[in-house]
Amino acid sequence: MIICDLCGEANVCLQKEIEGKEYDVCTECWNPIVQKLRGKGRVKERETVFLPPPRVITEREDEEPNPLPGEQPKIWGAVDTPNQKDRTLA
Predict the structure, then answer these.
(1) pLDDT in tens, 12-71
(2) Within-domain flag for 10
(3) How far is CA 43 from CA 38, 39, 40, 82, in A?
């Protein structure tokens, strides 16, 4: 038997933590408090969410960077027409 911190009587008490302090409260005192506080309060323990590490964007040395908005893009390539080969053989 433990003495209840609320009513002062020797009863079977449960340890309850309120605002970081532990109290011995019997069920006769605890039930009215539970009914009064039902639907109120907040979650004590919150889950920790781990975000993925930030992506590091690296540009390749052999590639040119993309043009800035408003600039003309650079077009790389060669003009190769398939009909030119036929003209050289004739």
Answers:
(1) 888 888 878 888 999 888 888 888 888 887 777 778 889 888 877 665 555 666 778 888
(2) yes
(3) 13, 11, 10, 72
| Separation between Cα atoms, residue 88 and residue 81, nearest integer Å | 13
Residue 85 lies in a domain: no
pTM of the predicted structure, to 2 decimals: 0.40
Provide the terminal-to-terminal Cα distance of the chain, rounded to the nearest Å: 114
25 in any annotated domain = yes
Token pair listed for 61: 């040395």
- 19: tokens are 């605002």
Residue pair 12/1 in contact by the 8 Å Cβ criterion: yes
Beta strand spans in 1-90 (E)? 2-3, 10-11, 13-18, 21-26
